[in-house]
UniProtKB/TrEMBL annotation:
Highest taxon, organism lineage: Eukaryota
Entry protein name: Pentatricopeptide repeat-containing protein
Family note: Belongs to the PPR family. P subfamily.
Gene source species: Coptis chinensis
Lineage: Eukaryota, Viridiplantae, Streptophyta, Embryophyta, Tracheophyta
PANTHER family: MEMBRANE-ASSOCIATED SALT-INDUCIBLE PROTEIN-LIKE, OS03G0201400 PROTEIN
Keyword annotations: Repeat
Gene3D superfamilies the UniProt entry points to: Tetratricopeptide repeat domain
């Protein structure tokens, strides 16, 4: 199946009020990567976000892979922020990759914004019955309390 015919099928599904399932979205984005069609992948992502698609994590990993591969850091940042705004935590793998690539691209301000947003999902640490956050602006590092 070619990218064009796959996207036409996806378009017909959208017109009928359906979204492709998680596996189909991942397949479509991988096809977009092979043909370097970032805009098509971002249109699919936009539809997912607007229609309330719930399986963001797997699809976002594939999308981030495409965006990083093509050096589309701003688009990756925007997709990351959309996920967080919808209450979905990006995978740790994606966050580590975006963190390293933003550092390599000297995009330190963007990295601070993304780290702060990722802090929303930072677990509240319980130490011997006392609940508190690790730091005022949590970093994305895991520390365990061995006393609980």
């Amino acid at each position: 199946m070619t990218l064009g015919s796959s996207l036409n099928l996806c378009k017909r599904m959208r017109e009928a009020g359906c979204l492709p399932n998680t596996q189909s979205c991942m397949f479509l984005i991988r096809l977009c990567k092979k043909q370097e069609k970032v805009q098509m992948a971002l249109v699919l992502w936009k539809d997912m976000v607007e229609k309330g698609f719930v399986s963001y994590i797997w699809v976002s990993d594939v999308l981030f892979d495409l965006l990083f591969y093509l050096g589309k850091f701003e688009e990756a940042k925007n997709c990351f922020l959309q996920m967080v705004e919808k209450g979905h935590k990006p995978s740790n793998v994606s966050f580590r990759r975006i963190k390293v690539l933003m550092e390599l691209a000297n995009r330190h301000e963007t990295l601070k914004i993304l780290s702060k947003k990722m802090g929303i999902f930072w677990p509240i640490v319980q130490e011997c019955g006392k609940t508190e956050r690790e730091a005022p602006w949590p970093t994305f590092e895991l520390r365990l309390c061995l006393h609980c």
